[in-house]
Specification:
This protein is an alpha/beta fold and 180 residues long. The chain has a single domain (3-177), classed as Phosphoglycerate mutase-like (Rossmann fold, 3-Layer(aba) Sandwich). The chain is 39% helix and 17% strand. It has 7 helices and 7 strands. Strand 3 (51-54), helix 3 (58-68) and strand 4 (74-77) form a beta-alpha-beta unit. The longest helix is centred in the last third of the chain and has 18 residues, at 115-132. 36% of the residues are buried.
């Protein structure tokens, strides 16, 4: 009764290309991002997905719609899949944010939230998946903090190790959400 969960990061944004940490800002896909979203759809459309769940931030929604809108696979937006809210630092440089991540594992960013709060939101999302999607394969399109939360909750990783690690893109991460 486990859920087979494939995680994919949203496609490249103009903020990513400019070195800006969007946080809760909506973000806009760049041309390269739009192409990557089309490739995501080609890669995953016939992968047996029962549903796609996406953050409600525009960059993730656009990625899901470009990839799956014509596929017949249902797309569900979920606010719990948002990136970490960097509060006053939403829209700051990635370099600036990187120097502060470790300080905000359990202490919220000023005006925002902590990475542990993202883990809490993700835990709630996973509980709903366990209840509503047993024995199904689902795709989640979200952000770095959500992947870290999945790695903590389902892979036993430590947030302190993840927040300092360089970002390494790959074509999806696979997780198993055990049955309750």
């Amino acid at each position: 009764m486990a859920v087979d969960l494939i995680y994919e990061t949203h496609a490249i944004t103009t903020d990513n290309e400019a070195g800006i940490a969007s946080g809760w800002c909506p973000g806009q896909l760049s041309e390269a991002g739009r192409a990557a979203a089309r490739q995501l759809g080609e890669r995953r459309r016939s992968d047996g997905m029962a549903a796609v769940f996406t953050s409600d931030l525009q960059r993730a929604v656009d990625t899901a719609e470009i990839a799956f809108s014509a596929s017949g696979i249902s797309i569900h937006q979920d606010r719990r899949l948002r990136e970490c809210n960097y509060g006053d630092l939403n829209g700051t440089s990635v370099a600036e944010l990187a120097t502060r991540r470790r300080q905000h594992i359990d202490v919220p960013f000023p005006g925002g939230e902590s990475y542990l709060q993202v883990v809490g939101r993700t835990r709630e999302f996973l509980a709903d998946l366990q209840r509503d999607r047993p024995n199904q394969r689902v795709l989640v399109i979200a952000h770095s903090a959500n992947r870290w939360a999945l790695q903590v909750l389902l892979g036993g990783a430590e947030l302190a190790d993840l927040v300092d690690a360089p970002f390494g893109w790959q074509p999806g991460w696979h997780f198993t959400v055990p049955s309750r």
